[in-house]
Design a protein that fits this description.
alpha/beta; FAD/NAD(P)-binding domain; 3 domains; nine-stranded mixed beta sheet; five-stranded parallel beta sheet; NADP; Thioredoxin reductase; FAD; oxidoreductase; thioredoxin-disulfide reductase (NADPH) activity
């Protein structure tokens, strides 16, 4: 998750444009498309070079060179085209965030020949997950100057490919975990023969619940966030009034965390009571830098076009409206794990997260592992997701070895 918020890049999608070219099926019409798009892409790249970091421009140039050399639906070993001759795999990874790619890197280095299905806008995100919607990431080790979320995920992907991961852009729409090997169907190809896998890693992530109020899209990542731990310390929030939406334990925790940086924190609670535990509720209500606005919901996010400056609020009992000065709005109204694919086949908890055995990524079905936010409702950080991806790869390798399925 990001630790700094800034205005979205005015020229987004350069790397995504080049990537889409490398993933387009090879055909006569696609050759024409590449020729037509090349001029546009070069123009965009030249225009953007002056306003994006050198490393991003270099990466985009490299992506364009790759696109010019080959156009293929499957990428192996750094982007070279390849056609799979078999649909049976030792390890399939569903999801392409930090958990999925870390799993892929470890599994590929272990010669498991992992196959990843990135998902085309799966769970509402582009391939790469939530980090593709963020700007600067400053809390992931190895990037002392920070790195843009989309660029970081491009690097994750390049490293997965370097070690031999096969990456498909398609979304897996259906799985059958009732018998071995596991069966997986691609979206739009449900009537065809499925892919099969001896082991499966679910790394489909989770998405924060949002309120979709007017102004939310404008100020998302420019004052509005769903992760106080990720974003609370950034300069635009320091010594400024901030607001937290929610009345549960998470909302109380986030509000108390933000008091380290904010001039004051307002909790916007829909009802006249907190849903949080008594201990957490008492701490929030007694904190000198927290004011709880009961029976209150945000109606609109307002700003100067660059950053959030105020909120339009509504009293749910009287329907009265008023403005509140706030330079930050943090949603703490829960997350939605992307587990629809495995519902009824894997054990899920009351909130829909995949249940794993304590200290492992093993799910209720032997040989199926879960990594990242799809099974983590506590931390939800990129670095913890990456760690669980590593764990899933090591446990998959061990499972295959114990069942004599490594060959």
């Amino acid at each position: 998750m990001p630790s700094r918020i800034s205005k979205p890049d005015p020229q987004p999608g350069l790397a995504l444009l080049a990537r889409s070219l490398t993933r387009t099926s090879h055909s006569h019409s696609c050759s024409k498309l590449l020729t037509h798009t090349a001029t546009t892409f070069r123009s965009l790249l030249n225009t953007a070079r002056a306003r994006i970091p050198t490393t991003v421009a270099a990466a985009a140039s490299a992506s364009f060179a790759t696109a010019s050399r080959a156009m293929a639906p499957i990428e192996v070993n750094g982007g070279a085209a390849a056609e799979k001759t078999s649909k049976h795999n030792k390890l399939v990874i569903i999801g392409s965030g930090p958990a999925g790619h870390t799993c892929a890197i470890y599994a590929a280095r272990a010669q498991l020949n992992p196959v990843m299905f990135e998902g085309m806008l799966a769970n509402g995100f582009a391939a790469g997950g939530q980090l593709t919607t963020t700007t600067d990431v400053e809390n992931f080790p190895g990037f002392p100057e920070g790195i843009r979320g989309p660029e970081m995920m491009d690097l994750f992907r390049a490293q997965s490919l370097r070690f031999g991961t096969t990456i498909h852009t398609e979304t897996i729409s259906r799985v059958d975990l009732s018998s071995r090997p596991f069966k997986l169907w691609r979206e739009g190809m449900e009537q065809e023969e499925p892919e099969t896998a001896e082991t499966l890693v679910i790394a489909t992530g989770a998405s924060a619940r949002r309120m979709h109020i007017p102004g939310e899209e404008t100020y998302w990542q420019s004052g509005i966030s769903a992760c106080a731990v990720c974003d609370g310390a950034v300069p635009i929030f320091r010594r400024k009034p901030l607001a937290v939406v929610g009345g549960g334990d998470s909302a109380c925790e986030e509000a108390m965390y933000l008091t380290k940086y904010a001039s004051h924190v307002y909790m916007l609670v829909r009802r006249d009571v907190l849903r949080a535990s008594k201990v957490m509720a008492k701490r929030a209500m007694s904190h000198p830098k927290i004011t709880i606005l009961w029976n209150t919901i945000p109606l609109e996010a307002k700003g100067d076009g660059e950053v959030l400056t105020s909120l339009r609020l509504k009293d749910t009992k009287t329907n009265e409206e008023r403005d509140l000065e706030a330079n930050g709005l943090f949603y703490a109204i829960g997350h939605v794990p992307a587990t629809e694919l495995v519902k009824g086949q894997l054990e899920l908890d009351e909130d829909g997260y995949i249940v794993t055995k304590p200290g492992t990524t093993q799910t209720s079905v032997p040989g199926v592992f879960a990594a990242g936010d799809v099974q983590d409702k506590v931390y939800r950080q990129a670095v913890t997701s990456a760690g669980s991806g590593c764990q899933a790869a090591l446990e998959s390798e061990r499972w295959l070895s114990e069942h004599d399925l490594e060959a």
